[in-house]
Fold this sequence. Notes:
Blueprint: E1 2-10, H1 16-24, E2 27-37, E3 43-51, H2 52-59, E4 65-71, E5 74-85, E6 92-99, E7 106-115, H3 119-122, E8 126-129, E9 133-138, E10 147-150, E11 159-161, E12 171-172, E13 179-184, H4 187-198
Parallel strand pairs: 1-4, 2-6, 7-10
Antiparallel strand pairs: 1-3, 2-3, 4-5, 5-6, 7-9, 8-13, 9-12, 11-13
Amino acid sequence: xxxxxxxxxxxxxxxxxxxxxxxxxxxxxxxxxxxxxxxxxxxxxxxxxxxxxxxxxxxxxxxxxxxxxxxxxxxxxxxxxxxxxxxxxxxxxxxxxxxxxxxxxxxxxxxxxxxxxxxxxxxxxxxxxxxxxxxxxxxxxxxxxxxxxxxxxxxxxxxxxxxxxxxxxxxxxxxxxxxxxxxxxxxxxxxxxxxxxxxxxxxx
Length: 204
């Protein structure tokens, strides 16, 4: 997995007025959740902020990253867990990060990449992905940038489901029944199949 650096500043004021002022100045309020817990047993969060520009490559990217967070000189490793956007303007409003270690497994969504030329495509079908990412559980050091899925033997009208996949060192969290990709019938494929059925066999 790729890594990216993000610098932030601890928040001393967390009210609505202070939050509006942060956003007005091009900054994004953030929380960092770690191992420390409060009296009720829930994970406590550290509030900080960073600039829209600092987050641009991390947020607006098809890639996944581990984040080297530097908050007022204090460094830690984290992953981005949740984003909040304005429903009308799509402005980034808030980001939650989760602190990670090399030992503790985490759950992340990893992009899929289909490899090979499917048999069904050769027969005139169209290969289509039903999902773009799959959830996996592993130590962050074991999580790849992409999950390669070989579709070479995928026939016309057939599918690949999550339950049929296996990746060394990763636990798939997405439901086994979810369809990952399929080769759909096209008009040309149906026409070719109909022609083949209607053609009488050669007689010796």
